[in-house]
Amino acid sequence: QVQLVESGGGSVQQGGSLRLSCAASGFTVTDYCMGWFRPAPGKGLEWVAYISNGIIGAYYADSVKGRFTISRDNAKNILYLHMTSLNSEDSAMYYCAADLSRCPPSPGRGIWGQGTQVTVSS
């Protein structure tokens, strides 16, 4: 069964850190472009960070650059998002996505998880 399962969300104070995990089953994460998404006000889901398949490259939205790090554990087949210096604007449901041929992944295609909620309080 092909699926992605996110975990690691929760409530954290402003300035704190969280690590999100996305466990993949039924496929190998290194074969896919993998990304993390969250809703943007009035814009739908937007990518926060993604990591390409093949030649490794990691890309970040300007709003999280320098604070978030995306990585993969190839042996465990897990995608991570390490988030630091969190602020209230980072509060959102975070979704993990994978796509074999489109990078970054795009809503409406590929493989998507159910999401994990991050809430940042001041």
- Total number of strands: 11
Sheet with the most strands?
7 strands, mixed
Mean pLDDT: 96
How do the helices and strands follow one another from N- to C-terminus? EEEEEEEEEEE
Low-confidence stretches: none
Structural class: mainly beta
The helical percent reads under 10%
Radius of gyration: 13 Å
- Amount of beta strand: over 45%
What does this structure look like?
With 122 residues, the chain is mainly β. It contains no helices and eleven strands. β7 and β8 form a beta hairpin. The protein is globular. The relative contact order is 0.31. The mean pLDDT is 96.
Kindly list the characteristics that best describe this protein.
seven-stranded mixed sheet, 122 residues, four-stranded antiparallel sheet, mainly beta
Topology of this structure?
Layout: E1 3-7, E2 10-13, E3 18-25, E4 33-40, E5 44-51, E6 58-60, E7 68-73, E8 78-83, E9 92-99, E10 111-112, E11 116-121
Parallel strand pairs: 2-11
Antiparallel strand pairs: 1-3, 3-8, 4-5, 4-9, 5-6, 7-8, 9-10, 9-11
